[in-house]
């Protein structure tokens, strides 16, 4: 049987990928941020998960405004990164697992989540940077990966509560997969940041730390927040942090927090790294 | 016909990319989206005005795009992520665009952000449980 | 306030559009089928609805398998028909109502339906033929129209129950629209038919009539059926009839049936025309 | 790795277009989908084999497409709606394809369908409430 062995949160911003590409991870600006991933790297080394589901939002690579799905899941055997218009070099492609994806998609749809299934899917920085910061750069990635895209760009967005419920349904889907497989869920994006408007550059450390505590110990606190309230506290782009709720929902009611790391600023954002295991 | 008013419109200094904004700027965002494709970037560079016409931009939006008025483009309904495909290759980062909203330079904007780091480690020590190297 | 003044069911098969284009509607093969729309035409004449929501499935024009949304809603001011590869002449474009669409989309997403929003959308025969058979051919269509696409092609599909619930949520969405507007919902497709496999050509009249009675008087009977059961009874393509449940859900608990018409075969299918008003 | 078995696989004479089938025939269905575009139809007609290679069809699928074996194409995982974009312009209707599954002609297929009309009006009169002209 497949099993969710843990959940991770991580930033997915382009600057993280650029810092890796430019060899800046040990520079003062970046060192504290990147060093905070070491315990996660050790855990991944030790646990050797078979597959990671990366919950992220597309920023205008695979989806344009003509078709914005609330929730989309990759159902392919491979996913390509591609030109996002900024001159970045695309990474090596990622191996998926179509059978596993279709099992999950079917279970989610049967649980009344109205998924968009994607048999071909370009993955953007929101997917790629979590992979790079968690696993390093590879020509052949050491783990299978499945993109699960949440719309956090074109309002109306799914609520934090709906994301949490999606995570709970994801656990049901994965727990019912008949083959042995160790699965990790990554909730990516956030934390507080705003890119546009006169309030651009806001970071709300107090709120970010409250969210981190809630994700660990009291997910209903986060799930009960309205989209408006989260945007007011975390910024219009900080709303991305709702994707952490998908990861959290997939871990079950209680979790053990193995690692907790926060840093600000990285680029415009507060950045939170969590490593959680389902607990009792 | 009036678009419904939303509470989020009252969040100060913030523009939420909703149906109303997206609808008003669909063609312009479609133009920026096309910049994922190198051949489209080249076609635009060869004749920006003609490329704007091809996508059916309004005269106002076309003028903003042609003169590379990134702030104007954002105010006119561009989504920040789509706009980035226009601005970043031209040396204007998302931070520069954010700074422009406040009438400060990108360096000043980054300085202000860096202030968030001051006292952070001490703060996290007090919170407890955080990794600190 | 907007108000749902009625619901209609209709076939959407290409042959219907071809019969109209070729002037065959009064030929023996077609006459009984087309004449059965007259009471609906009279009702539309009399009630003059402002807007119709056409619940249909795309058959490979706007959506390919790379992005198959379970539920998608048009959010544009106009929708184009286009070449489906068969040499048919596209119709005149359809006027939509973007403000209304976004209101509905927002309400549905807030009610935990994970819609795909489409700010540009090509509408195929599944949308166009209901418009032609209900309103005749026009260079300027006499009513605004909004496409609501349900995935009935790429399994896993939403259940009949989920479609029924979508209809109920659609009613909440429309009832809360602040402007006066008379809205009709069309549930299209079906009834029993199978296009492929050794069972191709099956039509199940008994089952179709049971479904019609259930749609009118006992929608839970239909909603309780599994996708497998419906396919077994109605054929693998007859599963389309689940889209009638969206219309039915939008009308409230009880309905008055103003018109009930069934014909078979038209092309490969059983065809049901219903005209329903919300009742007490 | 085994694909999950579904109950619908036991419905006789029926092929449900699910993830397993779609996955195996993605490239072929993508080729058919491209026929929405006239220029793609022309490119295919000019050199069917090369067009199949462009879409990465398996050798088996390519052979079926090149010899316009519509039944073979369906059995090989084509979706009926996508296949129609290939067959209909070549004079093969969806009914002809259905008939081929049973080894009968399109006309025989249509005859069998017409039998459904026999006694229908009487039947509906008995049911009650149906329009009858
Ligand atoms: Fe992001
Ligand atoms: Fe259909």
The tally of structural domains of chain B comes to 1
Order of helices and strands of chain A: EHHHEEEEEHEEHEHEHHHHEE
Low-confidence sequence ranges of chain A: none
**CATH fold node name of chain A:** Protocatechuate 4,5-dioxygenase, Chain B
Number of separate helices of chain A: 10
For CATH, the homologous superfamily of chain B is named as Dioxygenase LigAB, LigA subunit
**Secondary structure: helix percent of chain A:** 25-40%
**What CATH architecture of chain B do you see?**
Orthogonal Bundle
Structural class, from secondary structure content of chain B? mainly alpha
Q: Report the CATH architecture of chain A.
A: 3-Layer(aba) Sandwich
Low-confidence runs of chain B: none
Q: What's the CATH superfamily of chain A, by name?
A: LigB-like
Averaging pLDDT over every residue of chain A, what do you get? 97
- Helix-residue proportion of chain B: 55-70%
Percent strand of chain A equals: 15-25%
Oligomer: heterotetramer
How would you state the average pLDDT of chain B, rounded? 96
Instruction: Spell the H/E element sequence of chain B.
Output: HHHHHHHHHH
Morphology of chain A: globular
Estimate the strand proportion of chain B: under 5%
Task: Report on the architecture of this protein.
The complex is a heterotetramer, with two copies of chain A (280 residues) and two copies of chain B (133 residues). Chain A has a single domain (2-278), classed as Protocatechuate 4,5-dioxygenase, Chain B (3-Layer(aba) Sandwich). The longest helix of chain A has 16 residues, at 160-175. Chain A has 280 residues and is an alpha/beta fold. Chain A is 35% helix and 25% strand. In chain A, helix 1 crosses helix 5 (125-135) and helix 4 (98-110) crosses helix 6 (160-175). In chain A, the strands form two sheets. Chain A has an eight-stranded mixed β-sheet, with helices on both faces. Chain A is built from ten helices and twelve strands. Chain A has helices at 14-21, 28-35, 38-47, 98-110, 125-135, 160-175, 205-217, 219-223, 227-234, 244-249, and strands spanning 2-10, 51-56, 68-69, 71-74, 78-81, 94-95, 116-118, 122-123, 144-150, 181-188, 255-266, 269-278. Chain B has ten helices and no strands. Chain B is globular, with a radius of gyration of 19 Å. Chain B has a single domain, classed as Dioxygenase LigAB, LigA subunit (Protocatechuate 4,5-dioxygenase, Chain A, Orthogonal Bundle). By secondary structure, chain B is mostly helical. Chain B has helices at residues 19-24, 26-33, 38-46, 48-55, 59-66, 70-75, 80-87, 94-102, 106-114, 120-127. Chains in contact: A-B, A-C, A-D, B-C, C-D. One fe (iii) ion binds at residues 12, 57, 59, 126, 189, 240 of chain A. Residues 12, 57, 59, 126, 189, 240 of chain C line the site of one fe (iii) ion.
